[in-house]
Amino acid sequence: MQEKLIYDDKVTEKLSAVYKEVLGEIGEDPNREGLLKTPERVAKALQYLTKGYDEDPEEILKGALFNEEYSEMVIVKDIEVYSMCEHHMLPFFGKAHIAYIPDGKIVGLSKLPRVVDAFARRLQVQERLTIEIRDCIEKTLNPKGVAVVLECNHMCMQMRGVQKQNSSTTSSAFTGLFLSNDSTRKEFINLVQAKLH
Ligand SMILES: Nc1nc2c(ncn2[C@@H]2O[C@H](COP(=O)(O)OP(=O)(O)OP(=O)(O)O)[C@@H](O)[C@H]2O)c(=O)[nH]1
Ligand SMILES: [Zn+2]
């Protein structure tokens, strides 16, 4: 799959100027040797961390849909998530667990983590991220059900603010059989928790 260009020279230039100001405002000397290239590095890092705005998650899934009569649960678990909270622009990160029950169509497995990234590489709140992933899969695959669980640590709660270093946040979103059928939901949760390896 072709990767889009991440860095835009004009954006890099504008953001670099802003970050040079920021360095001065926090009491640093932007002209000392170690910091000379820092504004440009940060400008690029920020573009990378928000590159999801230029990606279309539905198109990602549509790129690998296959007709298949498999109708059991498909689970991709322990997908690394790296995002940034929209309140503090600090990272939150953890794992996503995704399941769906196909209804005539399956999707290329790698596309599910790609969808996670496309939504995560934006300013987010964990709950919205969870729902966006679910809705994208629901709309594009039209399966019998979708389940998404995210478990994340929020740096805005750990490095600052309440400073709860060991807290983590779990969010979940379901559709179809995962909502209407308790045993399907339980099967998903058991399989996510199971240590098969
Ligand atoms: N629901 C939700 N809240 C989040 C997420 N990321 C950060 N937050 C919270 O957003 C809230 C913003 O609250 P404010 O009171 O406006 O900000 P603040 O004064 O910096 O809050 P503290 O973090 O409590 O110091 C905080 O409670 C954060 O913990 C998220 O993904 N989901
Ligand atoms: Zn935050």
From TrEMBL:
GO terms for cellular component: cytoplasm. Belongs to the GTP cyclohydrolase I family. Zn(2+) binds at C85, H88, C156. Residues 18-192 form the GTP cyclohydrolase I domain. It catalyses: GTP + H2O = 7,8-dihydroneopterin 3'-triphosphate + formate + H(+). InterPro entries: GTP-CH-I_C/QueF (IPR043133), GTP-CH-I_N (IPR043134), GTP_CycHdrlase_I (IPR001474), GTP_CycHdrlase_I_CS (IPR018234), GTP_CycHdrlase_I_dom (IPR020602). It is an enzyme of class 3 (hydrolase). Homopolymer. Pathway: Cofactor biosynthesis; 7,8-dihydroneopterin triphosphate biosynthesis; 7,8-dihydroneopterin triphosphate from GTP: step 1/1. Keywords: GTP-binding, Hydrolase, Metal-binding, Nucleotide-binding, One-carbon metabolism, Zinc. Pfam families: GTP_cyclohydroI. One of its GO terms (biological process) is tetrahydrofolate biosynthetic process. This is GTP cyclohydrolase 1. GO terms for molecular function: GTP binding; GTP cyclohydrolase I activity; zinc ion binding. Transmembrane segments: none annotated. Its EC number is 3.5.4.16.
